[in-house]
Structures are given as structure tokens and as C-alpha cells.
Amino acid sequence: MSVKLSSAALGHLPEGVAGPGYDRADLSPGIVHYGVGNFHRAHQATYLDRLFASGKDRDWAIVGAGVRPGDAAMRDRLATQDWLYTVVDLDPQGLSARVVGSMTDFCPVDPEANIERMAAPETRIVSLTVTEGGYYIDAETGGFDGDHPDVQADLESLRPPRTVFGQICAALKRRFDAGVPPFTVMSCDNIPENGQATKRAVVGFARLSDPELADRIELEVAFPNGMVDCITPATSERELKMVRDRFGIEDAAPVVCEPFRQWVLEDRFPAGRPRLEDVGVEFVDDVLPYELMKLRILNAGHAAIAYPSALLGHTLASDAMNDPDMAAWLEAVIGREAIPTLPKIPGVDFRQYLATCAERFGNAEVGDTIARLCLDGSNRQPKFILPTVRDALRDGGPVEGLALEVALWCRYCRGEDEEGRPIRIEDERALRLKKAAEEAREDPLAFLRIGDVFGDLVHEDRFRDAFAAALRRLYDTGVRAELRSYVAPSG
């Protein structure tokens, strides 16, 4: 028999399931969080749960907020179990489950309810996990897209705003008018310079509706940058059944995730903050070096194994990491060509971080797929690989491995693996990529001429020649032979 999760169930949880470890009646809210999805509940909410369990800062509990139908559905699921949920750490040494209690309420998915809660003096942080698309980033300029239909609908309506950023602006105005200091706005999304992206969105919205408010927000509100990391798969019927059958918990909204978590934050919280450093959060003056490390080791590492693994027929990332040639290739290309482009971070060992990433990629319990890692290459390569190429070229560093990685992507974009089995290219530029990859069989530079992906790299002789040579060798000798040749070059 499984136990239906609720406050009443905390006193008799099944053996092996940890409870919150504190009296939730002692908690009071300090944070409003938009986007109560799996990542937030595996990451930020879990850090706070551990902090509360240590006996500290129990006036920083979370109140959920949302603006979309999916948020209302999550609210409904959590409401039936008193805002509790189970987190299962997918540790290959043994799965573990914990009921997390750091959320004490969830606003009705209604603009006025969200604004009122944020305007309350006890709210000192408003945090967000709304995904990259939720920031209304203009694709051409990188600035705030004030012409987006959602934004325009808010600006033209006489009702309270329905977007996250319109609601934040409305709440800040109420606080300013009432003489209440502003809250800190903290993005927890996995995007570079997430604090700056949030500031552009909030100030950009205010600038279109109330320029005086925009000026005051720009001057008085803090938007710390943060780097977040924890692989968190979606919850499906498989996870619901696993939590029920393996741990004896009937949970409408469990979360499964890898055991690794990282959170690096700029320490800019004028309204105060919980002592998250006591539970492993790193507070620093500048997050950007940490973001660059993640982009060029973890994200680039995923790209490095994705395409050769697909071409060799691997299905899961853990399968790939059990392939000695793939593991050696990952260590070699990132170690030789990506790590040398990184600025040093005191106390951080990049090679140890790479080893940790490789271990994470190999976690079979997570079930991460090669198909997922291959998604959207035409947007990921310019973020994770090509900036490293440019820096290496500028500094006179090696680019042969990075050129091979791009050649592997090109070979993948032909749409078949080495056994002739079809590969479905999931990319907004799929047709262009496939056409260019087919042309590159005879003219390798056809692929590099995709200007909105590669920019001027087709004119960089050293990279261009290395790419062309690598692509020819892939067709002549095959993927595995080329990986081995790079890892252990002859002579």
C-alpha cells in the first residue's frame, strides 16, 4: 500500500523516504517564484529545504506563482498534497527519495493575486524559472522584444498585466508608492547572464508603460546573475509509477533528477537573502567565468559526444560514456582545446570539473538520450562550440578537435548513421543543414557557408582547412577511426 502525500502523511512516511526534517508551521514566506516546474523543485526549492532542515532562515519559504495554464495544472496537483512533493535523486549507487516542504503556498494563477503577493513587504525575493523563451529576447538585437504580442496585449489592456514582467513592474510600482523597499529579482533559468536578461525584460517593459518607473527600477532593483545546473528529466507515468512502487508514495507531482546540483550566485541582495552558502551555494562577485566554464566544458562536452554517438548507433548518453573511444575523445578535445581558452577561477580545477561532467553523462539512471543532445544543433553550436573556436584562433591555440566536432555534426546532418539507418534532424534549419551536408560530401566548405550559423569562420584558413580535412577523413575511414586518430595521433 502506498501513502498519499500530504501534511498528515509526514508522520508515517514509508521506510527509506526522508521527510522535511522541520515543522512546516514554523515557516513564513519570503520568496515568490514564477515557474514551479521540475527544475525549480529539484534545485532552488531543494536547497531551501535543506537550509530549513538545518534550523536556519525559516522566514524564506517559497510561494509559487504562474501565468500559464500549465502553472494552474501544477498548482492543482500540489494543492491536493499541501504543496509537498517527492524528489528522487537518480544516484547510480542507489536511488534516494526525500519529501520537500519548502513551498508553503501557491498563488491562484491570476494577475492580481500574483501582484498582491509580490507587493507584500515580507516578499524580499522574486525568482523565476520561465525558460529562455519567456524572456522575450529579440532574436536580432538580443534586447527586449517590446513588439511581442504578449507584451503588446499587456500594454493595450486596462486589466492587470498577464506577463511575468508586467506583473513584476506592477508589484514594484505598488511597493514604491507605499514606501516599501523593492524586492530582488533573481533568475534561476539556465541562460547566460540570466540576471541581465531579466533586467532587460523588466526595465524594457516598464520603459514602454511608465518611463519614470523604469528609471527607478534601473536604479534601485538588484538583478543578480546566477549559474544553475542539475539534469532534471520530465515526469511521466514511468516516474509516477516508480515513486509509487519503489518508495510507496502516491505523489501527483514527483521530481526525479541527478544527484549533482550546482548554484553559483552573485551576492547582490539588498533586501536580504537566506544563508544558502550553508547548503552549498557559491556566492561570488562575478558569475560570468563560471558560466563560461559550463558552456565550454559541460555544454560543449554534450555536443562533442552527441554526433559521433548518433553516427555510431548509441541511444543513451550513458551508453556513449561506456564506449572507451567516446570517453577518450571527450577528455581529449575538451582538455586540449576548450579548457585552455578559459580564464582561471581561483579554487576551481577545470579538469576535475570535466571529470565530474563525464561521470554525470555516464549516469544510466538519468536515461539522457543522444537524440536530446543532438537537438537544435544550429542554435547550440554557435553558443557552445564556435566561440571557443574563435578564441582559440585568436590566441593561436589548436582547433583540430573542434573542427572535427563540427565535421561530425556535418556528417550527422546528412541524416543517416554509419550503418545507413535514417536519422531525423530536429532543428529549425533542418532542410538547409541537410542540403549543405550533402553538398559538403564533394565541397566541404558548403557547410561552413551557412552564414547565420558560422558567420565569417569560412574565411578562417586554419579552421576551414582543418574542418575540410576532418570531413574527408570521416568519409574515408569512419567515425571511430577518426576519434582514435585524434586521441592518439600517429608519431
Automatic annotation (TrEMBL):
Coiled coil: none
Keyword Chloroplast assigned: no
Keyword Oxidoreductase set for record: yes
Domain of life: Bacteria
Matching InterPro entries: 6-PGluconate_DH-like_C_sf, 6PGD_dom2, Mannitol_DH, Mannitol_DH/Oxidoreductase, Mannitol_DH_C, Mannitol_DH_N, NAD(P)-bd_dom_sf
Keywords: Oxidoreductase
Pfam families referenced in this protein's UniProt entry, alphabetically: Mannitol_dh (PF01232), Mannitol_dh_C (PF08125)
Domain named Mannitol dehydrogenase C-terminal: residues: 286-474
A single GO molecular function term of this UniProt record: oxidoreductase activity, acting on the CH-OH group of donors, NAD or NADP as acceptor
Residues of the Mannitol dehydrogenase N-terminal domain: 30-277
Name of the protein in its database record: Mannitol 2-dehydrogenase
